[in-house]
TrEMBL record:
InterPro entries recorded: GK/Ca_channel_bsu, Guanylate_kin-like_dom, Guanylate_kinase, Guanylate_kinase_CS, P-loop_NTPase
UniProt cross-references to Gene3D superfamilies, sorted A to Z: Guanylate Kinase phosphate binding domain, P-loop containing nucleotide triphosphate hydrolases
Phylogenetic lineage: Bacteria, Pseudomonadati, Pseudomonadota, Betaproteobacteria, Burkholderiales
Gene name of this polypeptide: gmk
Residue span(s) of domain Guanylate kinase-like: 8-186
Highest taxon listed in the record's lineage: Bacteria
The UniProt record lists the keyword Transferase: yes
Protein name per its UniProtKB record: Guanylate kinase
Length: 209
């Protein structure tokens, strides 16, 4: 099966660091049992509460380069000085089984994914302002001042990429942004179902069977 023929829906969520993408995706997953998140590989060091295999597969650069050489990644990119990648094993089997998958990756990865999976739905999350973005990074309390500075500088370039995405959601009030995200997911499922000719497939896709 070619990647673009896989029956599952693929959602890609990108945002500048601190915009609230992980919080939104986590809340979405709690509400939507048909959605699974793909766990990426990274060379970044784990933060306090993060667990190997839950937030990320934390590996060193030699291991990461080995995976690149073996063609294990659908996409990978350097972001804020670290390497991040989506492995084939993280999403291929799920999509082939017809399950919906969400990727939380940066804009470079999102555009690579769109080339491989043209049906992927790209969603960009924006913060309400630069000031609020910086405050969220500080309030999160996970990064030192230098790291926050790099992320704020990179945010300018990242936000400029929003125009390549299918949807843009402003995460001002959390519940409103979550509702917007749910609507995009629901709408994509309905669109996919409407394209199916077989009645039972339509019902299954709508979860009405
Ligand atoms: N291209 C790509 N980017 C990723 C992947 N996983 C995470 N990222 C992105 O890397 C950036 C930094 O992520 P992270 O270190 O978790 O910091 P955070 O966004 O501040 O929580 C974010 O833009 C993520 O979306 C991946 O597999 N591929
Ligand atoms: N709508 C919101 N209003 C206020 N704070 C938020 C909102 N959404 C997320 N946050 C907070 O902002 C910080 C960054 O969110 P996070 O999900 O880690 O961002 P990202 O994954 O985009 O880097 C966290 O402390 C989170 O609780």
């Amino acid at each position: 099966m070619r990647p673009e023929d896989t029956p599952g829906n693929l959602f890609v969520v990108a945002a500048p660091s601190g915009a609230g993408k992980s919080s939104l995706v986590k809340a979405l997953l709690e509400l939507d049992s048909r959605l699974a998140v793909s766990v990426s590989h990274t060379t970044r060091k784990a933060r306090g509460q993060e667990q190997h295999g839950r937030e990320y597969w934390f590996i060193d650069e030699a291991e990461f380069r080995g995976m690149i050489d073996r063609g294990d990644f659908f996409e990978w990119a350097q972001v804020h000085g670290n390497l991040y990648g989506t492995s084939r094993s993280a999403i291929e089997a799920r999509l082939e089984r017809g399950e919906d998958v969400v990727l939380e990756i940066d804009w470079q990865g999102a555009l690579q994914i769109k080339k491989i999976f043209p049906h992927a739905v790209l969603i960009f999350i924006l913060p309400p302002s630069w000031t609020e973005l910086e405050q969220r990074l500080r309030r999160r309390g996970e990064d030192d001042a230098a790291t926050i500075e790099v992320r704020m500088a990179n945010a300018r370039e990242e936000v400029a990429q929003a125009r390549h995405f299918d949807f843009v959601i402003i995460n001002s009030l959390f519940e409103t942004a979550l509702f917007d995200l749910k609507t995009v997911v629901h709408s994509q499922r309905l669109k996919y179902a409407a394209q199916l000719r077989n009645r039972s497939q339509v019902f299954a896709a709508l979860d009405l069977s």
